[in-house]
Structure formats: structure tokens, C-alpha cells
Amino acid sequence: QVYVVFNEDLKCWCRALVESVWCQADGYQLRCFLVDYAKYCSVASENVRALAGAFAKIPHRAKKCRLHCTKPLTLHIDYCENTAKIGPAKRWDTAAIQHFRKLLE
To answer: Which of 7, 17, 51, 104 has the fewest CB atoms within 10 Å distance of its CB?
Structure first.
């Protein structure tokens, strides 16, 4: 379900999908995906509102997607044998993410 949340960085109300909720000392925090900005953010529960009927029907400008059959790789360095090999990784490293963003631009 899509909600409206106030994003502190953008200083405006945005449509968002709630990913998760966690409790903090001062209240609840929600991790949200902004469907019109393709950004993730954390929002306090008091900054979440229900989406009015007509606005819920407007298509999202951003969609979550993945690269088909593309798995992250990383450079594994063995200091004892003085070798380096490219192998599978659990996550994309920062350099790979930056390189991919530059290719998109």
C-alpha cells in the first residue's frame, strides 16, 4: 500500500511504500521507498499519512528492479600467495555501484 510521507531531505510530501518499521525511544521509524524519486529514506511515524483516493491512481515514476542474471563480483586478494582473483560476492561493492551509475548517466 502506498502512503504519503514527509521527506526531510526533499522538504516535501512524497508517495512511498513502507518497507519496514522499528521502534525507537522517541517513537516508531519507518524505512520507505519513495516511488516518485527512487530513493530510500527513514521517516518518523508522525510524518506518515494515508493517500487520498485520486492520488493513489497516478502511476509511479520509479519502479524497483534488478538486473537479470547479474550477480555481484569482487576481487579476492590472497596476501600469503600474492594472488588476486575475481569471485562471487554477497553484495555489490561501492566502486561497482558508482561505475554502474556513471554508465547510466
So the answer is: 104
pLDDT digit string, tens, across residues 11-52: 999 999 999 999 988 889 999 999 988 889 999 999 999 988
What is the SS3 assignment for 37?
A: coil
* Whole-prediction pTM: 0.59
Beta bridge partners of 3: 16, 50
Alpha-carbon gap, residue 13 to 102, rounded angstroms: 29
- Fold annotation for 2-57: SH3 type barrels. (2.30.30)
Which triple of cell numbers denotes residue 72? 555481484
